[in-house]
Specification:
This protein is mainly α. The chain has nine helices and no strands. About 65% of the residues lie in helices and about 0% in strands. The protein is globular.
């Protein structure tokens, strides 16, 4: 059966309407509303803190267990919820690997788990990492403001 060719101009109106709809929802609001389900390893930099709760710890840790372990003597303790170990590992990863390395998401996810288990010291590190990341990822600016003010 022959395929019916469609002129490019006939596709434009529907494409434009989709683009218009996408532009009406800013990247920030679509990220914050979690319209696209992302890996739990990026939740620390993509989701509102008040949208996270203790139930998310299980999902984050399940993914952390499947990732390549961080080569740090404290990683096992960080992974299992020791806040001091998680913060220490994350600081070392940030120092040696920077903001764009996937290991940063792994380390910061362990810190996020500690926050969700009511460790308030982890708030300062998450805010600091978001402040640094906002230079390369503008959506982190609003999140940084929320974490910095620590209303939760």
């Amino acid at each position: 059966m022959p395929v019916k060719s469609t002129p490019a101009h006939s596709l434009a109106p529907s494409s434009l309407s989709r683009l218009d709809a996408l532009e009406q929802v800013s990247p920030r609001s679509s990220t914050f509303q979690n319209s696209i389900e992302l890996s739990p390893l990026v939740w620390w930099r993509t989701r509102l803190p008040q949208d996270l709760d203790r139930r998310d710890v299980k999902r984050i840790r399940a993914v952390l267990l499947r990732t390549e372990p961080i080569n740090d003597c404290d990683w096992l303790r960080a992974l299992t919820g020791d806040p001091a170990a998680a913060i220490g590992v994350a600081i070392r990863v940030l120092k040696f690997h920077g903001m764009v390395d996937p290991m940063t998401d792994v380390a910061m996810s362990s810190v996020l788990c500690c926050f969700l288990e009511d460790d308030r010291a982890s708030t300062a590190l998450i805010a600091s990492a978001l402040r640094r990341r906002k230079k390369i990822d503008p959506q982190c600016h609003d999140l940084w403001l929320l974490w910095r003010n620590d209303p939760f």
